């Protein structure tokens, strides 16, 4: 599961970029601070400096010919507040990042001997153990019609197309367990058999992979789109718990595309 560690580091990078921006602006900011008073319906701008006590408290009136200094002074005041907050947050994040690890709870369980592991109930089950239990749940896939070409994956499982073999073999090479054509009930549509059902380490939920291999066939494309809409209607959203790949006669499935999708949604 994507935990806090990466989010903390991403936040550090964001704040460091902000700090760099405000530091650059403050380095060229004009001297003094801006004080705004109301005179009727029009604001008056005062420049406060250390020139004398009165100037420090009340400021000197900024005349129209010097009004170009007003906005830089307002920006300076804003940037100083941002800098104080960002510096404080960066210091806090530095301390947290030194100590925090996403898998620190799992590491306690993993460090136990096998005897002790069998005697305790972990507060978090290691993902690999969850995958084993998930993979052990039996299911009945679709039958293969007589005359269907025999296409076997590296695992020795039978699939229906060369593209499905490519997908299955990439999963195998990357150490990702899957279920082929495991039935799934979609309300308003009926039972479907996703090409692959996988358990995402990123979100710790089942993810469904549909490969639509004949999208230049209008009838096939209509059915594929209706099925995808039914996934969405059941709360299974593309890019979250649904991965869809496509092919036509002129556009073949690319290994790199598959691997990029795996890294972005599963690992």
Report on this model:
The protein is an alpha+beta fold and 267 residues long. It has two domains: 4-101; 138-265, Trna Endonuclease, Chain: A, domain 1 (3-Layer(aba) Sandwich). Helices cover 45% and strands 17% of the residues. The protein is built from nine helices and eleven strands. Helix 1 (4-27) runs antiparallel to helix 3 (70-99). The chain starts with a helix and ends with a helix. The model has no long low-confidence stretch (mean pLDDT 92).
Helix and strand sequence? HEEHEHHHHEEHEEEEEHEH
- With strands numbered from the N-terminus, the spatial order across the biggest sheet is 6-9-10-11
Radius of gyration based on Cα positions: 30 Å
In this structure, how is the largest beta sheet organized?
A: 4 strands, mixed
CATH fold-level topology of the largest domain: Trna Endonuclease, Chain: A, domain 1
Unreliable stretches = none
Q: How many beta strands in the DSSP annotation?
A: 11
Assigned CATH class of the largest domain = Alpha Beta
Structural class assignment: alpha+beta
Ends distance: 8 Å
Give the overall pLDDT as a whole number.
92
How many domains in all? 2
Strand content: 15-25%
């Amino acid at each position: 599961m994507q935990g806090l560690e990466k989010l903390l580091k991403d936040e550090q990078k964001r704040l460091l970029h902000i700090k760099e921006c405000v530091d650059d602006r403050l380095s060229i900011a004009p001297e003094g601070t801006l004080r705004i008073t109301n005179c009727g319906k029009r604001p008056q701008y005062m420049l406060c400096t250390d020139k004398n006590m009165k100037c420090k408290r009340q400021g000197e009136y900024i005349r129209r010919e010097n009004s170009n200094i007003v906005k830089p002074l307002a920006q300076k005041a804003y940037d100083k507040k941002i800098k104080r907050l960002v510096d404080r947050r960066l210091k806090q994040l530095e301390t947290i990042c030194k100590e925090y690890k996403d898998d620190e709870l799992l590491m306690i369980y993993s460090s136990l001997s096998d005897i002790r592991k069998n005697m305790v109930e972990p507060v978090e089950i290691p993902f690999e153990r969850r995958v084993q239990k998930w993979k052990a749940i039996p299911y009945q896939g679709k039958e293969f019609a007589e005359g269907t070409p025999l296409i076997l994956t590296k695992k020795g499982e039978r699939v229906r197309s060369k593209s499905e073999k490519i997908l299955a073999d990439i999963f195998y090479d990357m150490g990702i367990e899957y279920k082929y054509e495991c039935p799934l009930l979609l309300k308003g549509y009926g039972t479907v058999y996703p090409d692959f059902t996988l358990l995402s380490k990123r979100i710790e939920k089942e993810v469904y992979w549909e490969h639509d291999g004949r999208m230049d066939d209008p009838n096939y494309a209509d059915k594929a789109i209706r099925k995808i809409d039914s996934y969405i209607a059941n709360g299974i959203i593309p890019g979250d718990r649904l991965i869809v790949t496509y092919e036509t006669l002129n556009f073949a499935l690319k290994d790199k595309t598959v691997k990029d999708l795996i890294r972005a949604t599963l690992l």
